[in-house]
Automatic annotation (TrEMBL):
Family annotation (PANTHER family): CHAPERONE PROTEIN YCDY, DIMETHYL SULFOXIDE REDUCTASE CHAPERONE-RELATED
Keywords: Chaperone
Entry protein name: Dehydrogenase
InterPro entries per record: DMSO/NO3_reduct_chaperone, TorD-like_sf, TorD/DmsD_chaperones
Keyword Chaperone part of the UniProt annotation: yes
């Protein structure tokens, strides 16, 4: 194994797991107190990965920092206000300002469970990834798509550690394709809707982090795929 490339790749792959874990938990379900404790930790805003490399991530982190200064999420009222903002934006019961399904952006009629959903499901099934709420929640929900990227990020790290470079290249290529064909096609519009519609600044901040990171991750995947892992024998 090329030791230089391996030593460069591992921290980046580990960071991808960390970031996708945070992003999937942000959008997959209503904010839990456990999740918010993670966000309230100073390390989240002071040491979030790639904040200096991407202006949108930097802006999102700064917005979250200000939000945390102005709101005590340990207060039941403040916590419930944040829950309501998530519910109003992403769940209902009224018309959703910022629906979290790919089909709502890429389907002409803005209907769910359409062609986009089936394409996403096909990508999942190649890795035997079965969403938690299969057949109850459309497969192209943002939280599930981010969860899929998280699972593949863990798998790519595992392949590197076991020096399975063929498996590593395939899973990195599939992640790059999934970003290009799915997430990057609709998350920018979703981000704009969240920025326009939120009552609180928490989800606009997280949406900026999400949008900035997806763009940055595509560059990271290109870099990872360009590395020559096999040029030095094990």
């Amino acid at each position: 194994m090329n030791q230089e490339n391996g030593s460069k790749a591992q921290p980046l792959l580990e960071m991808r797991v960390l970031v996708y874990d945070i992003l999937r938990r942000t959008f997959l379900e209503e904010p839990t107190k456990e999740f918010l404790n993670l966000i309230m930790d100073k390390e989240f805003t002071e040491e979030f990965p790639f904040a200096e490399e991407n202006e949108e991530i930097h802006e999102g982190i700064a917005q979250i920092a200000v939000f945390l200064q102005e709101h005590d999420l340990k207060s039941e009222k403040e916590y419930n206000d944040l829950l309501w903002d998530y519910t109003r934006l992403f769940i209902g019961p009224d018309k959703l300002p910022a629906p979290l399904w790919e089909s709502a952006y890429l389907n002409k009629e803005r209907l769910l469970f359409q062609e986009q959903t089936l394409k996403v499901r096909h990508a999942y099934l190649e890795y035997q990834f079965l969403p938690k709420y299969f057949r109850q929640e459309a497969d192209d929900h943002l939280g599930l798509e981010l969860d899929f990227m998280y699972q593949l990020s863990e798998l790519s790290l595992n392949y590197l550690q076991h020096q399975d470079f063929m498996g590593l290249r395939k899973v990195l290529t599939d992640q790059k394709t999934f970003l290009q064909e799915h997430l990057l096609k609709w998350v920018p519009e979703l981000t704009a809707k969240i920025l326009d519609s939120s009552n609180l600044s928490f989800y606009p901040g997280m949406a900026k982090i999400l949008n900035g990171y997806l763009t940055l991750d595509l560059e990271a995947l290109v870099e990872l795929l360009d590395m020559d892992y096999e040029s030095v024998s094990k």
